[in-house]
Amino acid sequence: MMESATNLRERRRQESAERLIELAREWTARDGFTGYTVEELCEAAGVSRRTFFNYFASKEDAVLGILAPHGDDELTQTFLDGGSSAGETISDALVDDFVALHLARWEIVAPSASDVRAMKAAIEREPRLHTRIFEMIQANEQRDIALIEQREHLEAGDLRASTLVHIVGAFSRATAKEYFADHGDAPPSIGHFSRIFEQRIAAARELLI
Length: 209
Fold this sequence. Notes:
Blueprint: H1 2-31, H2 38-45, H3 49-55, H4 59-64, H5 73-81, H6 94-109, H7 113-125, H8 129-152, H9 159-183, H10 190-208
Helix pairs in contact: 1-2, 1-7, 5-8, 8-9, 9-10
């Protein structure tokens, strides 16, 4: 019973967040940020203002689908558990484990082709969203650099941690561009994203090792 109630709450949370994201993108593309209020958005989605700010820090984050951290604690812990012991060299599985973490996160948040089109329309109306995207990328990179340093017991600023994060991030952005170009209006396949991504990782291994 407890597990069922937990799953129900999670499903409702996801549905409410998805509705807010959908409306925020639609209204921003149509009217810009000044054309509506958070209160109007919440009323249309059937949630409270408090619920909105439990999910998102701002209208910008709602449009971009940037939810407050939630849902990948278990993935993060699994990644941390695979690290080396203090004083040892970097674990052999670091690259594979970080790639697996990245792909698992993608499965949680993977947007559809229509999601991407709606977000692009909103960004065209509000170009300042590009600044928020850049901030989000930087914040995520710093989070993952710190995560690798923690797992491998590295000193802050160790270039190996930041290099891995930057390589995976660059490959992810290139993969996403190819992924949506391939699919057009067809329903995306998460497995296809993984295959394209892993091909890039394999090419990098061949070049660098």
